[in-house]
Amino acid sequence: MIKLSTAPYAALILRLSLGIMFLAHVALKVFVFTVPGFVGYFGSLGLPAILAYGVLALELLGGVALILGIYASWVAVPLALEMLGTIFLVHGANGWLFTNKGGGWEYPAFWTIGLVALYLLGDGAMALRPSQRHTN
Fold first, then answer.
1. Is the dihedral of CA 70, 134, 79, 102 positive or negative?
2. CA 35 – CA 29 distance, rounded (Å)
3. Separation CA 76–CA 92 (nearest Å)
4. Helix or strand or coil: residue 30?
5. What is the pTM of this model?
6. CA-CA distances (angstroms) from residue 118 to 2, 20, 52, 74?
7. Of 24, 32, 64, 118, which sees the most CB atoms within 10 A?
8. What is the pLDDT along the chain (136 residues), one digit of tens a residue?
């Protein structure tokens, strides 16, 4: 049974935590690895280096959209797809644990599940521009 009185706040907490995680993740790429370093890493994976800029933009804009609640349930979809990409293209071969060399896939998998849950829940409380797909 879903507690209808508190479910919007559960979605809010999930939305905020996911958004903050994405901002922290993009900050790591920008300030620690640096943009040129991250772009080079993308290229070293055999991916078009230009896609690295798209990932940075998606994580930055997506993180802000999640925090503010701007079409958050829809923003969760491309972010979940990005996380699936990190599993299949980057971390999957490194094993289950994210503490493995190169990072395993359990952390991006859990992140993906959280994003899918947010998509299913909807934007939650205090969303600036809630998606209209969850109206009754």
1. positive
2. 7
3. 21
4. helix
5. 0.90
6. 14, 14, 25, 9
7. 118
8. 889 999 999 999 999 999 999 999 999 999 999 999 999 999 998 999 999 999 999 999 999 999 999 999 999 999 999 999 999 988 888 888 878 887 888 989 999 999 999 999 999 999 998 776 544 4
